[in-house]
């Protein structure tokens, strides 16, 4: 009976160990941001490559694929940021600088995709603009969730600056979404 109790206790400890949330590190968050930045650049390049007229369905679907990949990375990043907890002033500044570095690329991608809406609408399959709208809405949600997690874990001295950055990105999404609605 004592051995059975010890066995059950050991199994319980293992179960708790495997189900406990894994604390992430600032290095993991920085790696996530690097990955997000690279994927934002990939998406921006795919959008730039799509012509103003005469685009192909394959090129439009590549943009959708790039958006979907970015959505997944943003979700993982949000989870990692949440698991990391509050960061130091130095780490917070590094993270904010890292994000600020690719914001112009995000805004460029949003501006480019909005400008090319007529080209997407002219494709032989009429659902492409709706698909892009859905991608934009999902990317906005995922981006804001990621940013909100960063802000929640940022030092108080960086929260206002980070919030302004998020507001600028959200405004860019809102403008692009409005074109596709």
Automatic annotation (TrEMBL):
Pfam families named in the record: HsbA
Q: Residue span of the signal peptide, if any?
A: 1-19
InterPro entries assigned: Cell_wall_mannoprotein_1 (IPR021054)
The answer to whether UniProt assigns keyword Phosphoprotein to this entry is no
Cellular compartments per GO CC = extracellular region
Tell me the keywords, alphabetical order. Signal
Know the name of this protein? Hydrophobic surface binding protein
Lineage, opening ranks: Eukaryota, Fungi, Dikarya, Basidiomycota, Agaricomycotina
């Amino acid at each position: 009976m004592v051995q059975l109790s010890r066995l059950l206790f050991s199994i319980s400890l293992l179960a708790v160990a495997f189900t406990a949330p894994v604390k992430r590190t600032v290095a993991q968050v920085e790696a996530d941001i690097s990955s997000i930045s690279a994927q934002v650049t990939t998406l921006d390049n795919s959008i730039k490559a799509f012509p103003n007229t005469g685009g192909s369905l394959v090129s439009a679907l590549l943009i959708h694929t790039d958006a979907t990949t970015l959505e997944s990375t943003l979700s993982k990043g949000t989870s990692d940021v949440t698991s990391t907890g509050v960061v130091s002033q130095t780490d917070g500044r590094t993270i904010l600088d890292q994000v600020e570095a690719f914001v112009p690329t995000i805004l460029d991608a949003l501006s480019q995709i909005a400008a090319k809406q007529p080209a997407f609408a002219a494709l032989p399959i009429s659902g492409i603009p709706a698909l892009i709208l859905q991608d934009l809405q999902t990317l906005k949600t995922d981006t804001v969730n990621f940013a909100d997690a960063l802000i929640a874990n940022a030092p108080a001295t960086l929260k206002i600056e980070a919030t302004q950055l998020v507001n600028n990105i959200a405004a860019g999404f809102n403008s692009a979404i409005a074109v596709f609605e």
